[in-house]
Amino acid sequence: MSEESEVEVGTCISCSTEYPIDDLSTTEDSDLVCSDCIQLCERCESVGTDGWGWYSVDDESWCENCWENDSFHCTRCEYTYNSNRVDYSIVRGNSWNESWCEHCISDYATYCDNCNEYYADDSGECPQCEGNGAGNVHNYSHKPNPVFHGSAPTNLFMGFELEMELNSIGSAEYREAVAGVTELESDSVCYLKSDSSIHGTGFELVTHPHTLGAYEQATELWDYIELLRDKYQARSYDTDSCGLHVHVSRSAFKSGAHTHRFLSLIYKNPREMMKLAGRKNSRYAKFSDVYKEDEWGIPRFNLHDKIHRGGYTDRYSAVNTGNDYTLELRFFRGNMKREGVMSALELCHASVEYTRNMSVSDVKLGMLKWEWFASWVESNNGLYPNLYVRMAKVPSVSLDNREMLNA
């Protein structure tokens, strides 16, 4: 009489009970889970356990990834919706901006025909248009036709988005702070937009495209940012919700190979780039999206999808290549000082120009390594004074020569 074969067993990660291995399922984290403890995301059907952090969205149970990328939370009714089913808009109060669902907007908000935005019914008149013509914080979707400042033979223009919180002032001061942008907006230098990712009261300052030289001469712009910081206590660097994003014109790149070298310089030197930017690998600016698994499941450096249209590129990556006319560098920490913003702009400019005429032989020689780039910035520190000074201060980014060159 033959002996019965031994049944292989496994242990449920949630309840620690042993079961035959064939009666267990495998979670997204490669753990085993029994039928009593298993839970599926009702959107993507990923497998998890009842001990995971699940989120209620439209009366469904969602995993964290789906909740983070495909839902939005109405701050009025405090209900979380599937963003593919329910539209939402920014609604203004006297001292706040909030994301409301279409149902709350229909019942409790009014559309202002003057500034083309919604405001809460209990605010009285539109907070942006009442009184003496205060400035305007536009809806997040606001995108005027760009006005270019300066001239550049290589067509290298940059625009930046500086997010900031203004949580230490009252509604009157807030309207006064916003009003300060009126002349700059009229001159097509910059404008203000709402951003629901900013904690509390705040906005992002968005500039029209400038050359690096035009930014150096933009005195009124830097004066306004300084006014927001010093008088209205605007904060960007010392917050959890603010960052600085720099857009570089696609037309500044001479070829696809140039774009590839530029991206390689940034993605192959993540530690140095993040140290200079003052921001570690944030989920809003990931450096990991360029590593793709090969047929053996081994991560390999691959820029194909970042460069070629039709490929997948994560918006929340260090360099977002999903825009039609710009590459967006998202990994900078917010900064309310002229020197801090200028160092970021100079880093972007230097990265484009350093890789512009680099040959295949130069790449093979190792010129995409940080030491080569740092040496080039050092020899051109007159063009990049703010970047040069910051590079000398950042640990592990050492420059020996402190004399300004090519000024």
Describe this structure in words.
The protein has 407 residues and is an alpha+beta fold. The chain has 13 helices and 23 strands. A 7-stranded mixed β-sheet has the order 15-17-18-16-19-23-22. A 4-stranded mixed β-sheet has the order 12-11-14-13. It has a two-stranded antiparallel ribbon with strand order 1-2. Helix 10 crosses helix 13. The longest helix has 17 residues, at 338-354. It is flat and about 80 Å long. The mean pLDDT is 86.
In short:
It contains 13 helices and 23 strands. Helices cover 27% and strands 22% of the residues.
Itemize the secondary structure elements and their pairings:
Elements: E1 9-11, E2 18-20, E3 25-26, E4 32-33, E5 38-40, E6 47-49, E7 55-57, E8 60-62, H1 64-70, E9 71-73, E10 80-82, E11 88-92, E12 97-101, H2 102-108, E13 109-112, E14 117-120, E15 137-138, E16 158-165, H3 171-179, H4 182-186, E17 190-193, E18 202-207, H5 212-216, H6 219-230, E19 243-249, H7 256-267, H8 270-277, E20 291-293, E21 299-301, H9 304-307, E22 319-320, E23 326-333, H10 338-354, H11 360-365, H12 370-379, H13 385-393
Parallel strand pairs: 11-14, 15-17
Antiparallel strand pairs: 1-2, 3-4, 5-6, 7-8, 9-10, 11-12, 13-14, 16-18, 16-19, 17-18, 19-23, 20-21, 22-23
Helix pairs in contact: 10-13
Notable traits:
flat; alpha+beta; seven-stranded mixed beta sheet; 13 helices
Instruction: Please state the average pLDDT score.
Output: 86
- As laid out across the biggest beta sheet, the strand order is 15-17-18-16-19-23-22
Work out the helicity level.
Answer: 25-40%
| Strand residues, percent | 15-25%
Query: How many β-strand runs?
Result: 23
Radius of gyration: 25 Å
Give the low-pLDDT segments.
Answer: none
Structure annotation, total helices: 13
